[in-house]
Amino acid sequence: MASRSNNRNTGFENMKYEIASQVGVNLKEGYNGDLTSRDAGKVGGNITKKVFQTFRDQHQEMNK
């Protein structure tokens, strides 16, 4: 599997770990294949909510 840079996290990676911590999912760097579907969905669902909230907020600011 191709790896980006092991020495730096992107903004998305930082957000992923932050959200996982907030929803109580123990997300570790590297392989997380042992996560349940429910836990993976908690993280992914909250990432989606945050991305759309940010988009909506920026869109509303542009239309003022």
Q: How many individual helices?
A: 2
The poorly predicted ranges are none
Average pLDDT, all residues: 87
Main sheet summary: none
Please provide the count of β strands.
0
Q: What oligomeric state do the depicted chains represent?
A: single chain
Query: What are the secondary-structure elements, in order, as H or E?
Result: HH
Q: Specify the helix fraction band.
A: 55-70%
Can you describe this structure in just a few lines?
The protein is an all-alpha fold and 64 residues long. The protein is built from two helices and no strands. The longest helix is centred in the C-terminal third of the chain and has 26 residues.
Describe the structure.
With 64 residues, the protein is mainly alpha-helical. It has 2 helices and no strands. The protein has helices spanning 11-22, 37-62. Helix 1 (11-22) crosses helix 2. The protein is elongated, with a radius of gyration of 14 Å. The N and C termini lie far apart (45 Å). The model has no long low-confidence stretch (mean pLDDT 87).
